[in-house]
Design goal:
globular, alpha/beta, 3-stranded antiparallel beta sheet, 9-stranded mixed beta sheet, Arc Repressor Mutant, subunit A
Length: 373
């Protein structure tokens, strides 16, 4: 099996915390971009090795700025799609209308991931989001009324001014809506973002690590009580609603990344498209291919596999590790994990290592000590 990721880099307005590649949107640029995606796919589809495409994910940027007609054209150009089971579109709440929902369903979209980030209007204003809390609720209702039940939302914790109480209210709002999937991330201060510049100027006081840990504890507790599977550090799903596309990333399933700034992985090497719309367009128009290839070493592949597997509730099978990377690396991982097993940060069932709730809080240290540098 394989997946396809399509990066749509256009945004009406950049959020204060965002460091993903994005550019301003104009209708002409957005629609012409679909032709570039189709041309790139035709030039690179052999990289999938004939594997059937099971999932497609439109990420961004703001993919909901692309017309459903263009989304349908892109999907219609993909071959080996007979058995595809999940086609996800990232959307902003303020782009969701009844006509939009009808049209994306007809285009082939059957799952939506929506960037809500908070159900508190003051927190949304701080993040410079284009919607308010009521608008997010209305967008969820609109999607469901239009026949799209598989809806995931993103929420952010660690927002300056946020409290455990306000965070809990956002969580309970999401849970009360019966959403099948939720992704939640701690606000991070990435180099070059407006958020980081404002922090460095002293315009606000960041939350402490202790406050963020308390919010993560609240997140895990509330979602578990509501019956959600905590299947990856940042992801929660009702039974049967795990993200198939993202789960494939964590299993080292090959995927083809199309569009400016998109990444691809075939199980051995990674390919990177330029983070420049002009550079991407010029290279695709010239020969259909814009990517640079990075052949990863065995140690780099081992490190990535350890991290992705330990991020999931399924954990890391030592037998699988040995079959992929050899007995020596299995022995290395077991020795490095021993202190974390004794401390209760890792647990072991049969041949599988996985993080405990306590271990999630120190996961970066666990990963670092199991890595080979």
């Amino acid at each position: 099996m394989a997946g396809i990721y399509v990066h749509i880099p256009f945004c009406k307005k950049k959020c204060i915390y965002c460091d993903f590649f994005s550019v301003g949107a104009s209708p002409e640029n957005v629609e012409a971009y679909a032709d570039l995606i189709i041309k790139e796919y035709e030039a690179r589809r052999e990289e999938l090795g004939g594997e059937a495409v099971r999932t497609v994910y439109f990420g961004g940027g703001t993919p909901s700025l692309m017309s459903p007609r263009s989304l349908a054209r892109i999907l219609g150009s993909f071959r080996d799609m007979e058995s595809v089971g999940e086609v996800t579109l990232e959307v902003n709440p303020d782009d969701v209308t009844p006509d939009f929902v009808r049209d994306i369903r007809e285009a082939g979209i059957n799952r939506v991931s929506m960037g809500v980030q908070s159900f508190d209007d003051a927190e949304l204003r701080f993040l410079m989001r284009r919607h308010d809390a009521r608008g997010a609720e209305m967008a969820v209702d609109c999607l469901r009324n239009g026949g799209i039940e598989n809806v995931s939302i993103d929420l952010i914790y660690g927002i300056p001014g946020q409290t455990v109480a306000s965070w809990e209210r956002s969580l309970r709002k999401a849970i009360g809506m019966g959403l099948p999937h939720l992704s939640s991330y701690c606000l991070t201060y990435e180099e070059g973002t407006l958020l980081t510049r404002k922090r460095d100027k002293g315009e606000f006081e960041p939350l402490t690590d202790e406050e963020c840990v308390a919010m993560y504890d609240c997140l895990a507790s509330e979602m578990r009580k509501a019956g959600y599977e905590h299947y990856e550090i940042s992801n929660f799903a009702l039974p049967g609603f795990r993200s198939r596309h993202n789960s494939a990333y964590w299993n080292f399933t090959p995927y083809l990344g199309l569009g400016a700034s998109a990444h691809s992985f075939d199980g051995r090497c990674r390919r990177y498209n330029p983070s420049s719309l002009r550079g991407y367009r010029e290279r695709i128009e010239q020969d259909g291919v814009a990517c640079e290839i990075e052949q990863e070493s065995v140690n780099e592949l081992y490190n990535e596999w350890v991290m992705t597997r330990l991020r999931t509730s399924d954990g890391m099978s030592l037998n699988d590790l040995q079959s992929r990377f050899g007995e020596e690396k299995r022995s290395y991982a077991e020795k490095a994990a021993a202190s974390y097993l004794r401390a209760g940060d890792l647990k072991k069932e049969a041949d599988v290592l996985s993080l405990t709730d306590r271990g999630v809080m120190v996961s970066d240290a666990v990963f670092r000590d199991l890595f080979i540098v």
